[in-house]
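ok trying again, last paste got cut off:
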Amino acid sequence: MTTKDPIHPFDLLEVERELTEEQRAIQKVARDFVAKEVKPHIAAWYESSDIPVRELALKLGAIGMLGMHLEGYGCAGTDATSYGLACLELEAGDSGLRSLVSVQGSLSMFAIHEYGSEAQKEKWLPEMAAGRAIGCFGLTEADFGSNPSGMLTNAKRDGDNWIINGNKMWITNGTVADVAIIWAQTDEGIRGFAVDTKTAGFQANLIKHKLSLRASLTAELVFTNLKVSDADRLPGATSLRAPLMCLAEARYGIIFGTVGAARDCLETALAYAATREQFDGPIARHQMTQAKFAAMATRLNTAMLLALHIGKIKDAGKIQPQQISMGKYNNAMAALEIAREARSILGGAGITTEYSVFRHMANLETVLTYEGTHEIHSLVIGEALTGIPAYR
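nice, full thing came through this time. structure:
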């Protein structure tokens, strides 16, 4: 039998030709960070359902990964594609790690950067960029996920202050956050607040017993007569559009991040198949296994090229919500399909923490439904194609 040296899946279409030298350098910084600081520990973090958020945040801040696509206030000011490539490498480590960075930079910091006062920006953004302060983003409620306009959390004016009551669910980093971006109904419409979590009336309860995103701290936030100053209100956030724009930023990172998880699954399966012997030879030589690899590599390259194309549109300042929806719609499902196929190649070994595949697969089940469910993104695309909103 004649054999050739194998090539990496991305070399099939020479994907790296699409990248600048600076983008490659930033991607390498993220990849090296994950290799050194995450991969040796991630299986244990996942199994224990814990992750050292503060320690990691300081290290991520030191290499400029927090709010890296934002300008000023200690942020790196990279282009959108570079940020996406960093998300790819972070999620190749674990979706929980990418979520940590995404919630910090694309939700919490972006909300302050885009809609906050100058005082709020100067107070929070440099500390958050350095990883010395952690943020969380309180929008989703137990009964209002895909329909945030129906949120029950409310804020009532009290002179120069606001009194906030309600609760939020599935809030990443909620138990360790120093500042919470809280969205609430008011007599003037939906408004946002940047609230110091040490304020009386703020409570964060850790959500336990998760079977997915275990290397991520998830909380329920409870507000009981939470009294905040009008100076804590985000003055530029005057409608539901503000939190939705924040979500669009986070979804953009997912478009790239899911490619990272899928790539790690495929690389793991390729390495395993090359050494796993069955019927007097490596399973990589079997026709059915190679057919699986061909399908997985095609899905992976398609997802990567889509991510890079959307990155170029975003860097040109022309990104539209339906484009981000299509990216997440395709790439989250493609990554999940690749993870499932990779798990089948690993057989029984694929369900252990010795390999990353099942961990990625379980995480991607959550990624498919958060930051807009797969179904909601299909309706965003459908509305763009027909001009008819079908949400109700």
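cool. Residues 18 and 271 are 26 Å apart (CA to CA). The radius of gyration is 21 Å.
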